[in-house]
Amino acid sequence: MNRLIDKIAILVMCMMSLTLSDSFIEPVILTLAAVTASAAAQLLTGRMAASVIIAACSMLCGAFPLFLCMLPLMLYDALWEKKWWLVTPAVLVFGKLGEIKVLQIIMIIAAIAVTVIIYLRVSGLEQTVTKLTLLRDEIAGKNRQLAEQNLRLAQAQDNEIHLATLKERNRIAREIHDNVGHMLTRSLLQSGALLIINKDEQLREPLESLKTTLDSAMTSIRESVHDLHDDSIDLKKVIEDSISTVDSRFSVTLDCDVSESMAGNVKLCMIGVIKEGLSNAVKHSTGDKISIIVREHPGFYQLMLEDNGSCSEIKESGIGLKNMRDRVEALKGRISFTTSAEGFKIFVSIPK
Hints:
By secondary structure, the protein is of the alpha+beta class. Helix content is 66%, strand content 11%. The protein has helices at 2-18, 25-43, 48-63, 71-80, 102-197, 201-231, 235-243, 264-284, 319-330; strands spanning 251-257, 289-296, 300-307, 334-340, 343-351.
């Protein structure tokens, strides 16, 4: 838009010099030709055709000396093409310079000077705008990188807090099991022994009540320890630790999308199947890729473990596959083993 406005201003100066000519038709024709050529040059900016148009118009000055009045407009387009020398053919007008009035020559020189000044101002402004745009884009990119880095740091911090919480739960469960659990077990044995050796019928009922209370407390402690232990299992972290031990010739991908409310026995089942599946792949697979997918659906949990090694048959009598089947069936789930030329697949489905 700035370039168009500047060209209109230059065109006005050129037409002012044309108005000093004695003819009327020739200035109109030359103006229309110059405007058309300038518009075409602007549309074809950066192409060879634009340079050809500017040079051709400059050469017209030799045939039509009055066309020299439109030279500033051609010079402006040449400057934008970074080829100011395209207007040098206009020197052909020197042979017919007598056909142009002195005042017209002065106005043309003034228009050329103004054209150069306008170009320097506008080109400088556009360079500044370009630099500012690049700077803005760079700042926006840095801000996005900073936001992504902050997000990764926050996620890493949340993971550390989560792992620390799980470790603390595990420690508490171990302390309860080792200390309180053992003391309650000893108290139960002692109360049972007292019941056996007791001869006083009046003490039998209180001793039986004490044993029942201790038994209930032991059951409650055992359930609490199991709950704490189940909650302390980070399924994804355990799977990732198992993957880290796989032979380096395998490229292993993991897609784990389950909630933290998954029961502990289901987690242990999944972990057992995955560890056995990875071990079998390392021992028997001829492939180099392993894919693990763990998903939670509204009514069941799903596990798919697949490698790309060729496998024609399987021996389900093997202890490894039997253990996997026993683990899944103990939770009323289903497991299948599929062989093909593309690889070996384990599919597990466990109802909630």
